[in-house]
Structures are given as structure tokens and as C-alpha cells.
Amino acid sequence: MVDTLLANAEVDDLRAILRATLASCPPSTASAFTAAARKRLVHINSRSRPCATSLFDVTSDGLAVPTPSLHASLRRSRALYGAGMGVASMGILTEVVLATTGQRWDLDGETADILAAVDQDISQAYQSMKEELGGGRVTDLNVARSTIQGLKAAVNESLGDCETWGGEFPFEQALAITDYWKI
């Protein structure tokens, strides 16, 4: 009967049921849940990254607007860092930051709002990455280091690009993280 519920319930209902279940169970249940989530995410290729050229479209006035691919990439990144896979999540977010280079956007528009959310996502992925490292779940420390180095390079490239066109740099928190965090 539970499978019938899973197959037919609305996503919002499943989300509410799952939250209530996890909140009312011992902490070990949430740990088991995130372990199962990580196993599933690894199984469906958590290391795949989006193609940077597909994340933004350019309007007729030359401004970048988000694509469905960007939204899908952000959902994927959030699922990864939410499951404690900050390293993999950070790789996706690095591609998003790289995709902003060469783009222009309305400082009060949807793209600016999404990029501000990406900056917040980077902070969350950073926290997830710290917990992943602290929990001993990172099998290759060099991958984590290169991920942070890649983010740092992308953030600095985006900063330089924003300065060339007078845009407001959207990744201030990411800049601080990459300046101060050492693995």
C-alpha cells in the first residue's frame, strides 16, 4: 500500500509526509535517509556537470536570462548539498559561476535574483562540503581541493568580468569563502 501512496501522491504531499516522519523519528532515521539519498545520487551520476553554454539565453537586447537547464542544475546542486554531497554540488555551482562570464544582466531582474540565490547556494554547499570532509566521506582530498580552486578561479573571473561592464558582482559570499577556506 505504501508504494501506491508513493506512486500517486502529489509531490508537496510527499514532501510534507517525509518532513513529518523525519521530525518525529530518532536522529538515526534522518542519518539513514541522507545515506540513502547519497547512494541514490551517486547512482544517478552526481559528478555530471551542466554545459555552461546552456545555462543562459541572451535576449534581443543582449541581456542574459536563465534557461530551464539552469533551474535544473540548481535543483540538482541543492539536492546534492542537502544530502551532504557538497563537493559534487560545488562543481555544479562552479559551472554556473563560469557561465556568467561574458554575460550581462539587468541588475534588478530575474537573472540578478537567481545569481544572488546561487551565492547563497555556494555558502550552503560550502557548509555541506565542510561536513562531508569532517565526516570522512571525501575519498579523494585532491578532488575537494581542485573543486575549491576551480570555484576560486571562476569567482575571480566573474569579478573581473563584472568590473569591465560595471555590473554588480553577485558572488560576494563565494569570494569570501574562497579567500579564507583552506583544505
Overall description:
The protein contains eight helices and two strands. The chain is mainly alpha-helical. The chain has one domain. It has a two-stranded antiparallel sheet with strand order 1-2. Helix 4 packs antiparallel against helix 5 and helix 7 packs across helix 8. The radius of gyration is 18 Å and the shape is globular. It starts with a helix and ends with a helix.
Mean pLDDT: 91
Biggest sheet statistics: 2 strands, antiparallel
% residues in beta strands: under 5%
**H/E element sequence:** HHHEEHHHHH
Radius of gyration: 18 Å
> What distance separates the N and C termini?
47 Å
Class of secondary structure makeup: mainly alpha
Helices, by number, come to 8
Percent of residues in helices = 55-70%
Question: Can you count the beta strands?
Answer: 2
Low-confidence regions: none
Note the overall shape.
Answer: globular
Q: Order of strands side by side in the largest beta sheet?
A: 1-2
Features:
about 180 residues, mainly alpha, two-stranded antiparallel ribbon, 8 helices, 2 strands, globular
What's the helix and strand layout?
Layout (H helix, E strand, L loop, with lengths): L1 H7 L2 H14 L2 H17 L12 E3 L5 E3 L1 H15 L3 H15 L9 H25 L6 H25 L6 H9 L3
Antiparallel strand pairs: 1-2
Helix pairs in contact: 4-5, 4-6, 5-6, 5-7, 6-8, 7-8
Brief sketch in words of this structure:
This protein is mainly alpha-helical. The chain has helices at residues 2-8, 11-24, 27-43, 68-82, 86-100, 110-134, 141-165, 172-180, and strands at 56-58, 64-66.
